[in-house]
Amino acid sequence: MIILGIETSCDETSVSVLKDGSILSNIVYTQLEHLEYGGVVPEIASRDHLRKLPYVFDSAIFQAGIKLNEIDGIAVTYGPGLVGSLLTGLSYAKGLSFALGVPLIPVNHIEAHLLSPFIEKKFPGDKFLALVVSGGHTELYMVNGIGHYELLGATLDDACGEAFDKVAKLIGIGYPGGPAIEKWAKKAEKSDFSFPVPDPPGLDFSYSGLKTAVLYAYRKLSVVERVEKIPEISLAFMRAAIEGLMKKLIRARDETGIDTIAISGGVSANTYLQKRVREEFKKVYFPPKGFTSDNAGMIAFTGYLRFSGMPGDLYVRADPNAELWKT
Ligand code: KG4
Ligand code: ZN
User: Fold this and answer.
1) How far is 102 from 73, CA to CA, in rounded Å?
2) CA of 10 to the centre of ligand 2 (A)
3) Span from the CA of 294 to the centroid of ligand 2 (angstroms)
4) Is the pLDDT of residue 63 over 80?
5) What confidence tens digit (pLDDT) does each residue in 140-193 have?
């Protein structure tokens, strides 16, 4: 069975071809137009998707070496995300689905991140914890099989990746902030800065306090120090941000007795997070390389797992605030 995946929920234009659960191609175009603004500009994003999607689609088909009439279903992100961006991918997918006479499979972007660690891997038989941690989301779920997700905790303010992006912007090291902060943090062996590890009650997360603490510390520095101390600030911030995640993961493990965890989303590429999670949990799943940030491979994969052979839904609407299915 061949499933085509399309992802345009934010600033990545991506198309993937999946055959019987294996990735044949996963083309990701990251929009660079937002760099000068230090964040994603929705109107620019949707216009750029519109321009690039046909080329990304052609590349994915070419690299997979398939013919269009071999496609059995079109999986596409319907939400959550930026409404204009979602609409470009969804409209393209509807057109394809109609023209090829194959079902349209609407996919929730968060579910696709959550399932991405299992691309070309065996799905766990027992319950497990799942942390989706990206630029837009910081959510912890208990998973009791595909489609059975219980939300345990979520961010009360900023998403973890968003805090990385905002701190990177503050200290002037570029966008996206996560990889930049990790790169600079590696240049420091230790840090004289000490930022509070966020720990709101229960299993929820919070990043606004940490972000403000970095801002106040930064304001006290001289112009020269602001440059010299970039590695130390990066290291102290990264440690506090990741330890904030770890507190909740450890608490969830202790409360539920579940020692298996799947971590996904852009921030799951962070090597300090990967190391800490491996230290604390018995069984750990991360997405394969190239599948942590937004990509259509995870959309095709989720569509494949969810595809029931039904005619699909050509009337599905883009939903910027789509919630992950709960049972
Ligand atoms: O999953 P993703 O591509 O998009 C969303 O759905 O939001 O995640 C992007 C986020 C950005 O905030 C970026 O700064 C963060 O993931 N990120 C990282 C790293 N690589 C990407 N954060 C920390 N460490 C990294 N190595
Ligand atoms: Zn995402």
Assistant:
1) 5
2) 8
3) 5
4) yes
5) 999 999 999 999 999 999 999 999 999 999 999 988 899 999 999 999 999 999
Is residue 326 pLDDT above 50, yes or no? no
Closest CA to 161 of 76, 242, 70: 242
Query: Considering only CA atoms, which of 141, 160, 164 is closest in space to residue 252?
Result: 141
- What totals of helices (H) and strands (E) does the chain contain, helices first? 10, 10
**Residues 303 and 103: beta-carbon distance below 8 Å:** no
Q: Which residues surround ligand 2, an ion (CB under 5 A)?
A: 134, 294
Of the options 3.40.50.360, 3.40.50.1000, 3.10.20.30, 3.30.420.40, the CATH number for the domain spanning 126-285? 3.30.420.40
CB neighbour burial string for 168-200, b if at least 16 within 10 angstroms, e if fewer: bbbbebbbbbbbbbbebbeebeebebebeebeb
**Portions of the chain given CATH number 3.30.420.40:** 2-116+290-326, 126-285
The preferred substitution site among 116, 272, 293, 298 for testing ligand 1, maximizing ligand atoms within 8 Å of CB, is 293
Q: CA of 285: how far to CAs of 97, 107, 129, in Å?
A: 33, 21, 10
**Which residue out of 28, 234, 267, 286 has the highest number of ligand 1 atoms within 8 Å of its CB and is therefore the one to mutate?**
267
34 CA to centre of own chain: 18
109 alpha carbon to ligand 2 midpoint, in Å?
6
pLDDT, tens digit, 9 for 90 and up, residues 192-231:
999 999 999 999 999 999 999 999 999 999 999 999 999 9
Q: Which atom of ligand 1 is nearest to the CA of 162?
A: 12
Which region, left, alpha or beta, applies to residue 131 given φ > 0 means left and ψ of -120 to 50 means alpha? beta
Distance 219 CA to ligand 2 centre (A): 32
What is the 161 CA–ligand 1 centroid distance (Å)? 5
CATH code linked to domain 2-116+290-326: 3.30.420.40
